[in-house]
Specification:
Blueprint: H1 2-19, H2 37-68, H3 72-80, H4 92-95, H5 100-113, H6 116-121, E1 133-140, H7 141-144, H8 161-169, H9 174-185, H10 194-201, E2 215-219, H11 226-229, H12 234-240, E3 252-265, E4 268-273, H13 275-278
Parallel strand pairs: 1-2
Antiparallel strand pairs: 1-3, 3-4
Helix pairs in contact: 2-5
Signal peptide: 1-17
Keywords: Membrane, Signal, Transmembrane, Transmembrane helix
Domain DUF6536: 3-144
Length: 295
Amino acid sequence: MSVSMVVLIAFLAVAISETGDIKQAWKFYESDCRHDNTKNMNTLLHLLINALSAVILASSNFFMQVLNAPSRREVDAVHARGKWLDIGIPSWRNAFYLSRFKLAAWISLCLTSIPIHKLFNSSVFQMTSRFGDFGLYVASESFLKGEPYIFPGASLYIKDDWDFVDLKTERTSAARSNLSTTAAKVSEWERLDAIQCQNMYRPGLCTGLRDYHDVVLVVDGPGWTRDDLWNLSMIADRLWEPVVPRYDLNSLLMQDQCNMSGNTWNGVSECGVSRSCRQFRRRDGEMRISEPEIP
């Protein structure tokens, strides 16, 4: 019992020193969600916790029986009053005929040992991170090999006029920064088959992203030029030429920052992605490209 108390106090002291607050949960282990390391650690810790709580419970039960067992003097005193006590078994009757110290200690052990399994198991818990936002890119195979790309892609897709202003001024935006990070590390990413990708990123899924975050849809071909996709007016061509040159090969077709969100409508829970991302993932497998807007 004393050994268990020392262990528990030691864990409490370490947790407080790490978090600085007795009310704050202590995160003492983390790993990649794609592996089962955290799950295995959680299982192992709960096995150890249950083993420790079983030892404490057995110890508490032993000392409760010791406290509940009357001495020869206590038996004689009860007999003198015409009463009787139980011998050799746990007894509620005995508890109220013994000394106040034994009664207080017996009740204390009883109250602390009964809920111990439940409290101990809830002291350690596993948490998984879920992402609702992700970058969605459509690119050629050459994009994965480090071939040059031109932001925002050959599709000229932008969300609003401010995006175009950022392009003209070459101001760094969050979308451009995310794309740069993606392009630098995309060769290290894991390739998913089409069905696995659709199941993970489908619009109606509200569980969030755990194993992966950003996604690149790879299309056959060396890339695209603006001239291949668009027949712009003279004004539009002059506006877009400094941003996406007409004849330069672009390994990037489209890019967007998407967001999964859940809503409740008339008591029914629904899940969806931002409207601009839905055009990338139509159920019929086709992709729509709208005429670029001219600010």
